[in-house]
Design a protein that fits this description.
The complex is a heterodimer of chains A (788) and B (232).
Chain A lengths: L3 H12 L1 H38 L5 E4 L5 H8 L4 E16 L2 E9 L11 E5 L7 E5 L3 H4 L6 E5 L6 E10 L6 H4 L2 E5 L1 H6 L8 E6 L6 H17 L6 E3 L9 H36 L1 H9 L4 H42 L10 H28 L2 H6 L13 H4 L6 H10 L3 H37 L5 E9 L1 H9 L4 E15 L9 E5 L11 E4 L9 E5 H6 L8 E6 L2 E11 L7 E2 L2 H9 L3 E8 L4 H17 L4 E6 H44 L1 H9 L4 H41 L11 H28 L2 H6 L2
Parallel strand pairs in A: 3-8, 5-7, 13-18, 15-17
Antiparallel strand pairs in A: 1-9, 1-10, 2-3, 2-6, 2-9, 4-7, 5-8, 6-7, 11-19, 11-20, 12-13, 12-16, 12-19, 14-17, 15-18, 16-17
Chain B lengths: L5 E12 L2 E13 L4 E6 L5 H8 L7 E6 L2 E2 L5 H11 E4 L11 H12 L4 H14 L15 H13 L5 E5 L7 H16 L3 E6 L10 E6 L2 E7 L4
Parallel strand pairs in B: 3-8, 3-9, 6-7, 7-8
Antiparallel strand pairs in B: 1-2, 1-4, 4-5, 9-10
Helix pairs in contact in B: 3-4, 3-5, 4-5
The chains are: A alpha+beta (788), B alpha/beta (232).
Chain lengths: 788, 232
C-alpha cells in the first residue's frame, strides 16, 4: 500500500481502535444473526427434504382388518401402485423413570421396509422376537438404554419386560420427547407376547407417479380402498398426507419464517448501527476532509477512501463472523433437527450461503456508509475548516422545549441538551434500541398470547383426567364405577372414533378424530367461532374445528355432510365451528356416535378431580384403574390433561423461545449502538469536558452527566418500543396464526413485561455508558483544552 | 500588457448570521503579479482570511470576480475546484493542519497522490527533496506529533509546494510559532519568493511587512492601503 491516502485510512482505523472495533462488532452481530439462520436453513432444508424423501414416505395409509400376503400381492399389482407394505400400530404403556407413559409400538413382518425406511443408529437391527428397538427421539424421554429391559403393557395385560436391543430413527414421526410418546419397534410375535393381536392392519402404499398431487393420490388410495373392501374387509381410515410434506412442516415453516425475518431485522439493526458509526466517524474527520480538499482531493477520491474503509471493515467482520455463523448455524441446525426428529448427517454449508453472507457483510457497511460519505465528501472546504460538521450546527439542534426546561440542575440540563445535540445520531441509536425492545415485548406478547390460547383451549375441557378403555362399555356402568372412587368430583363417559369426509366422487378425505360427549355435557364447552355448540336433543349435529375446515372447506355451517365412520357412510349436519387446537378434530353427540362405533358403548371417561396437584391426580388415575379393573372394566390407558397441555405447549412455545433469543441479540446490537453514540459524544465534547473540569466539575459530575445522557436516550427508546411492539405483536400473531394456531393478538403489552424492558434498557444503558463515562472522567483539563 | 497572476475585481463576500448578514469583504479589487510576496494585514475581522479563502477557492464571492493564473475561480464548479486548487494553489494554515496519522513525507506526498501530476515512483523523492529544501529532511519519517511547531509549519510549506503551484497562500503562518521560529518561517517564504514563487500571506504581525514586497491593508472588509515595501 504505497499511496499515502490509503495509509491514512489504515492508520485512522488503528488510531480509533475502539470505534473500529464497534463497527466490526456491529457488522459481526448482523452477519452472525442472519448468517446462522441462513446456514441453519440451508442445512435443515437439505436434511429435511433429502432425508424425508430418502425415507420414501407412504403416499397413503389405509387401516383395515388383517392384511395377508395375498392382499398385499393384489394391491402391488395395481398399475398406479409402486409399493405396498403392511404393519400394525399398537397403543401401549411404557414404564419410564417418571411413571407409565403412552407408547406406540410399530410391528411388521419384514423390517427391511421400503416405505418409511427406518434408519438403525445403535445396537441391533431389526428387533428380534422378545426384544424392542426404541425410536431415537424417544430414547431420552423413555430412559431406555441398550441392553436394559423396558417394561411394556398393552391394555390390562400383564406388563412384559422387553430387552432394548437397539435404537433406530423414523424421520416420518414427530419427536417422541415432544409428543410425550415412547415410539418403539417390535415383531408381530412380540406383540402377541404382550397380549395384543399380531395381525397387521395398516396398509401403506407408495404411488408409482411421484408427481401426483394430494387429490390424485387420494383417487389412487380410493382405488385401493375399493379393492380391499371387495375382499370383504372393512376400511376404517384412509389417510393421505400432502405429498412430500413432513408432519412438522408447519413448525418448520413457522420457525424459518420468523427466524428469517429476525435474521433480516438483526442485519437491518446492524446496518443502522454501522450507519451511525460511520456518520460519527466522518463527523470526526470533517476537518481532515477539509484539509485534504484544500490540498487538491476531489469529492470522489474522499468518498472512495471512506467507502473503501467501510468495505475493509466489512471484510474483516466477514472473516470473523462467517466462521462463527457457520459454527452457530450447525449447532442450531442440530438443535432444530432434534426438534423435528431428523439427524444431521452432513454439515457442509453450501457455497451460495457463504457467498450471500460475504456479499451482505461486505456491502452492508458500504451501503450504510453511502449516505454519510456522500454528504461528507461533498462538504465545502470552508464549512469543513470552520468545523460546523456534517450534521449541522450542534446546539441549534436542541429542541425548543428543552431550551426552556427549568427547575433542574445545570449538569442535568446539560445532559438533557447533550442527548439532543446530534439528533440524527440519537434517532438512529434510539430506533436501534427501540427495535430490540419491540422484539423483546413482541416475543413476550406472543408467548402470553400462546399461553392464553392454550388456556382457552384447555379451559374448555373441564376435566383433569382422561381414561381410555380397551373396549367399549355401557356409559352408565362406567360413570357409576368411576364416581365411586374417592377424589372424583364428576365423571362423564364419552364415545370416540375416527371419521373421514366422503366426497361427491365417492372418495374419502383424511381421517380425523371424532369426540362424542353427551349432548348436554358439562365437561366440554366450545369456544365457538361460528354457528353453535352441541345442545341437548341434537341427533346428528356436527361441530368441526377451525383446523379441519382449513384441511377441507366442505365443512360449512348448515351444510349436510357424509362421514365415513367405521366403514359406514352416515349423514351429519354441521352446526358450528370451534377453535379447539392445532390438530383437525370434530365433535358429535355421544348418543349419535356410540351406536355406530360401539353398539352404544363408551370408549373413554373424563374425570374432574376433587383433589389438587399432579401427584394427587396421578394417584387418582391409579386408583380409578384399579377400581375399574375390579369392576371388570378393562382400562387401556390413563392420561392427565396437564400432560396433554404440556405436549401442545412444547410445540407452540418453540417459536416464542426462539424470538426471545433474537430479542437478546437485538438488545446487544442496541447496547452497542448506545455505547458507540456515547463514546463519540464524549470524544466530540472533549474540549467542553475540559472547560467543565476547569470551572470545577468533579469526576462524579462528569460521570453522572454521561450516564444521564445515556439514560435519556434509553428511556426514550423504551417509550418508542411500546407502540412499536404493538406492530410487532400484530405481525407475529398473524404469522403464527397462519402456520400454527390462531392466537389472540394482545395489543397492550403486559405491564410487568414493559417494566422488565425498562429495567433491561436501564441496565444496558448503564453498561453501555460505563466506558465512555470512564473516558470522560479521565480527560485531563490541559489535554482537553488543547484538543483540536 | 500581461495579465496579473491574481486578480480580484469588485469582490464582495457576505455571510448569513443570526442577526441578518455580515459583510466580510465589500467591493475589493486587488491585482497581484507573478513573483510578488504580498502581505495582507489588518485587524481581526477585517476580512483578510476571507480574501485568502476566495483566492484559494475555499469560499466563493457573493459578487465580483476572482481570477488566478488565468482561471476564473468564481466560475469553477465544486468538483473542478478541488482539482484546480491541488494544481494551482498551495495553502499553509495557521495551525499547520498536517494529517496526524501520516508521516511528514507522507503528508507532502498526499497532494501528489490526489492530483496525480507526479509519477508514483517519483513522489517520495520529490517529497524528500522539498523537505530538504525546507530544512526538515531528517524529520521525514516522523509523525506530526513528534515535530516542533516550527518543523510542522515547514512540513506544511513543503506540502503546499508539492504540486509546484503558481501561488502559495499562507494564512497566519507564524500565528502559532514563537518569535524566533516565526522570523525563520518568514525568511523561508521570502527565500521561496526570491526563487520565483508568488506568495500571498495573511498576517496580523507588523514585523511580517519587512519580508513582503507589498502590503495590502484591510479594514472592515475594504482595502484601505496597498503599498510597496522598500527593502534596504
Amino acid at each position: 500500500m504505497r499511496s499515502p491516502r490509503w495509509r491514512k485510512v489504515v492508520r485512522d482505523v488503528w488510531l480509533h481502535k475502539a470505534r473500529t472495533l464497534l463497527v466490526v462488532l456491529a457488522i459481526c452481530v448482523g452477519i452472525i444473526g442472519s448468517g446462522a439462520v441462513l446456514n441453519k436453513w440451508a442445512l435443515l432444508r437439505r436434511v429435511t427434504h433429502g432425508e424425508f424423501s430418502a425415507s420414501n414416505p407412504a403416499s397413503a395409509t389405509l387401516r383395515t382388518d388383517s392384511i395377508d400376503a395375498t392382499l398385499l400381492h393384489r394391491v402391488r399389482a395395481l398399475p398406479a401402485i409402486r409399493r405396498a407394505e403392511a404393519r400394525r400400530t399398537v397403543t401401549a404403556s411404557a414404564r419410564t423413570e417418571a411413571g407409565w407413559r403412552t407408547a406406540l409400538l410399530f410391528a411388521t413382518e419384514d423390517f427391511a421396509k421400503e416405505i418409511g425406511v427406518l434408519k438403525p443408529e445403535h445396537g441391533a437391527w431389526p428387533p428380534a422376537d422378545g426384544a424392542i428397538v426404541v425410536e431415537a427421539s424417544s430414547v431420552e424421554f423413555s430412559g431406555a438404554s441398550i441392553g436394559q429391559p423396558l417394561e411394556i403393557q398393552v391394555g390390562d395385560a400383564a406388563p412384559v419386560a422387553l430387552t432394548t436391543t437397539g435404537i433406530a430413527r423414523d424421520v416420518g414421526l414427530a419427536p417422541g420427547w415432544m409428543e410425550h410418546v415412547v415410539y418403539a419397534f417390535v415383531t408381530p410375535a412380540t406383540l402377541a407376547r404382550l397380549g395384543s393381536s399380531a395381525s397387521l392392519n395398516e396398509l401403506q402404499i407408495v404411488v408409482r407417479d411421484p408427481a401426483l398431487d394430494r387429490e390424485a393420490v387420494r383417487r389412487v388410495a380410493n382405488e385401493v380402498r375399493v379393492l380391499v373392501e371387495d375382499t370383504g374387509r372393512r376400511v376404517s381410515d384412509v389417510d393421505v398426507p400432502v405429498p412430500g410434506r413432513h408432519i412438522h412442516t408447519a413448525q418448520i415453516d413457522s420457525l424459518l419464517m420468523t427466524q428469517g425475518a429476525f435474521g433480516l431485522l438483526a442485519m437491518l439493526m446492524s446496518g443502522l448501527l454501522v450507519l451511525n458509526l460511520i456518520s460519527a466517524m466522518l463527523t470526526g474527520q470533517v476537518r481532515e476532509i477539509g484539509i485534504m480538499k484544500a490540498i487538491g482531493a476531489r469529492g470522489g477520491q474522499i468518498a472512495r477512501m471512506y467507502l473503501g474503509l467501510a468495505l475493509g471493515l466489512g471484510l474483516v467482520a466477514c472473516a470473523i463472523a462467517i466462521p462463527a455463523a457457520a459454527v452457530l448455524g450447525r449447532l442450531y441446525a442440530q438443535f432444530s433437527a432434534d426438534m423435528l426428529n431428523f439427524d444431521i448427517t452432513g454439515f457442509t454449508i453450501p457455497f451460495w450461503a457463504f457467498g450471500i453472507q460475504l456479499a451482505v457483510g461486505a456491502l452492508l457497511p458500504v451501503l450504510a456508509a453511502a449516505v454519510p460519505v456522500r454528504r461528507g465528501s461533498r462538504i465545502s472546504v470552508g464549512d469543513a475548516l470552520r468545523d460546523f460538521g456534517i450534521l449541522g450546527r450542534g446546539d441549534n439542534a436542541t429542541p425548543t422545549l428543552l431550551r426552556r426546561v427549568g427547575g433542574v440542575t445545570r449538569p442535568l440540563l446539560l445532559s438533557l441538551r447533550n442527548a439532543f445535540r446530534r439528533r440524527q445520531r440519537m434517532a438512529l441509536t434510539l430506533v436501534t434500541l427501540a427495535m430490540g425492545g419491540a422484539v423483546y415485548l413482541g416475543a413476550l406478547n406472543l408467548k402470553a398470547a400462546i399461553v392464553a390460547s392454550v388456556d382457552l383451549l384447555f379451559g374448555t375441557q373441564r376435566f383433569d383426567i382422561g381414561i381410555r378403555f380397551a373396549k367399549p362399555y355401557h356409559p352408565d356402568s362406567i360413570e357409576a364405577a368411576v364416581s365411586r372412587v374417592a377424589g372424583v368430583a364428576r365423571v362423564e363417559a364419552w364415545s370416540s372414533g375416527r371419521a373421514a369426509l366422503r366426497r361427491a366422487d365417492g372418495s374419502v378425505g383424511n381421517a380425523f378424530p371424532l369426540t362424542a360427549p353427551p349432548a348436554d355435557t358439562r365437561m366440554l364447552s366450545f369456544d365457538v367461532v361460528s354457528g353453535r355448540g352441541l345442545q341437548a336433543g341434537d341427533a346428528n349435529a356436527l361441530v368441526v374445528n377451525r383446523r379441519l375446515i382449513e384441511d377441507d372447506s366442505s365443512f360449512v355451517v348448515g351444510r349436510e355432510v357424509t362421514l365415513v365412520i367405521a366403514g359406514r357412510p352416515t349423514p351429519w349436519i354441521v352446526v358450528g365451528v370451534a377453535e379447539t387446537g392445532p390438530s383437525a378434530a370434530a365433535y358429535v353427540p355421544r348418543d349419535a356416535l356410540a351406536p355406530i362405533v360401539s353398539n352404544g358403548g363408551a370408549s373413554l371417561a373424563v374425570v374432574a378431580s376433587a383433589l389438587a396437584g399432579p401427584a394427587s391426580h396421578l394417584d387418582l388415575v391409579q386408583r380409578i384403574r384399579s377400581d375399574l379393573t375390579d369392576a371388570g372394566i378393562e382400562v387401556g390407558s390413563g392420561q392427565l390433561l396437564a400432560q396433554q397441555r404440556r405436549v401442545v405447549e412444547d410445540h407452540l412455545l418453540l417459536v416464542a423461545g426462539f424470538l426471545g433469543v433474537m430479542a437478546q441479540l437485538m438488545i446487544v446490537v442496541g447496547g452497542l449502538g448506545l455505547a458507540s453514540t456515547m463514546s463519540l459524544g464524549v470524544l466530540e465534547r472533549t474540549r467542553e469536558i475540559g472547560v467543565l473540569r476547569a470551572i470545577g466539575a468533579r469526576h462524579r459530575s462528569i460521570l453522572t452527566m454521561v450516564q444521564v445522557e445515556g439514560l435519556v436516550i434509553a428511556v426514550l427508546s423504551w417509550l418508542v418500543a411500546i407502540p412499536l411492539s404493538l406492530v410487532m405483536s400484530v405481525a407475529l400473531g398473524d404469522a403464527f396464526g397462519r402456520v400454527m394456531l390462531k392466537v389472540p393478538v394482545i395489543l397492550v403489552p403486559e405491564a410487568g413485561a414493559v417494566l422488565r424492558w425498562l429495567a433491561v434498557v436501564v441496565v444496558v444503558s448503564i453498561a453501555a455508558c460505563a466506558w465512555p463515562a470512564y473516558r470522560a472522567m479521565r480527560v485531563s483539563t490541559r489535554t482537553a483544552l488543547s484538543y483540536e | 500588457m500581461t495579465q496579473p497572476l491574481i486578480a480580484l475585481r469588485g469582490v464582495t463576500k457576505t455571510f448569513p448570521i443570526a442577526a441578518g448578514e455580515f459583510t466580510a469583504l465589500a467591493g475589493v479589487t486587488i491585482e497581484i503579479e507573478k513573483g510578488e510576496f504580498v502581505a495582507v494585514v489588518g485587524q481581526s475581522g477585517s476580512g483578510k482570511s476571507t480574501l485568502l479563502g476566495l483566492v484559494s477557492g475555499i469560499d466563493r464571492p457573493t459578487r465580483g470576480e476572482v481570477h488566478v493564473g488565468g482561471t476564473a475561480v468564481h466560475l469553477l464548479r465544486e468538483r473542478e475546484m478541488s482539482a484546480w486548487r491541488g494544481r494551482a494553489v498551495g495553502i499553509v494554515f495557521q495551525f499547520f493542519q498536517l494529517l496526524p496519522t501520516l508521516t511528514a513525507a507522507e503528508n507532502v506526498m498526499l497532494p501528489m497522490d490526489f492530483c496525480g501530476i507526479w509519477p508514483t515512483r517519483e513522489r517520495r523523492d520529490r517529497a524528500l527533496s522539498l523537505l530538504e529544501r525546507l530544512g526538515v529532511a531528517d524529520q521525514a519519517d516522523k509523525l506530526p506529533a513528534a515535530l516542533s511547531g516550527g518543523q510542522q509549519q515547514r512540513v506544511a510549506v513543503a506540502r503546499a509546494l508539492a504540486n509546484a503551484p503558481a501561488v502559495l497562500l499562507a494564512d497566519e503562518p507564524t500565528g502559532n510559532l514563537d518569535s524566533r521560529t516565526a522570523e525563520s518561517m518568514l525568511e523561508l517564504l521570502a527565500g521561496l519568493v526570491s526563487d520565483g514563487q508568488t506568495v500571498v500571506m495573511v498576517t496580523h504581525e507588523q514585523s511580517a511587512r519587512r519580508f513582503a514586497s507589498r502590503t495590502v491593508t484591510l479594514a472592515d472588509g475594504r482595502v484601505v492601503s496597498a503599498e510597496q515595501v522598500a527593502h534596504a
